[in-house]
# Entry
Amino acid sequence: MLILTKIAELQRFLKEEAGRRTVGLVPTMGALHEGHISLIQTSRLNCDLTVCTIFVNPTQFNDLADLKRYPRMPEKDASLLADARCDLLFMPDVEEIYPAPVTKAYDFGQLGEILEGKHRPGHFNGVAQIVQRLFEIVSPDYAFFGSKDYQQVMIVRELVRQMNSPVRIIVCPTLREPDGLAMSSRNALLTQEERRLAGRVPEIMGIARTIALADGTGKAKQFVAAQLAADPRFRLDYYEICDADTLEILDGEESDRRMISLIAVFVGKIRLIDNLLLN
Ligand code: AMP
# Structure
């Protein structure tokens, strides 16, 4: 596997080696786990050449402490990617990606204002900045994203629409630990006790799904709030049930629309997100 840090080198390689091949891009922030590797595998199945990027994008962090503590383990990541037979790892530094302060502002309408957009102001603007930048640098045919970051996928699709970008977005399922916890780089930051507790999140979401389908979304929300309030180590940012296609927040009665529940919850200091299709 080739490891590059400079845009010029990457573009020279892609031009020389990959001129007539389909390129798949897997953007990540590193501290890789099996969820990331599943995206690499899907890219390898669909593309001739797979480029993984590792870049902890400062512009998408609204919380400086979160950025500082974000796990970084480039050697281990490179070894995992080489084992997964990724073709190229691109790991630029911040100056390479943003030689000048980046100010571009996007408008994603309601989609950018709710859930993560509401609780992490500026987050999706930063996500759009890095995704647009990486798409311009790599010019991939396909880009692979995880449905664990469900709202992010919808933002990326909207970005592609607004940019008239030819990049095709492929969405991959969420990989989970044996107890159901969605794999996440942030899980490594949990204490053993918090990690055990975090396993309750998918469990509670599963029960809430049954409640939502039987008794309506209001009851499901009450249930989740009450379950999490019972342990002070949890702090709920939001639990919402939305239209799975538009992310419109559904309040009240059951719907015959495709529904998804989305959660953001602190376990200790660590903020975790997850989602579950209801029907
Ligand atoms: P991140 O490094 O957290 O920015 O994630 C990079 C990509 O991996 C994003 O498209 C995520 O949605 C995806 N991803 C993160 N966790 C998982 C998971 N548990 N299963 C599948 N994909 C994931």
Notes: The longest helix spans residues 123-138. The radius of gyration is 19 Å. The pocket of adenosine monophosphate is lined by residues 28-29, 35-36, 38-39, 145-146, 148-149, 172, 174-175, 182-185 (CB under 6 Å). The chain has eleven helices and nine strands.
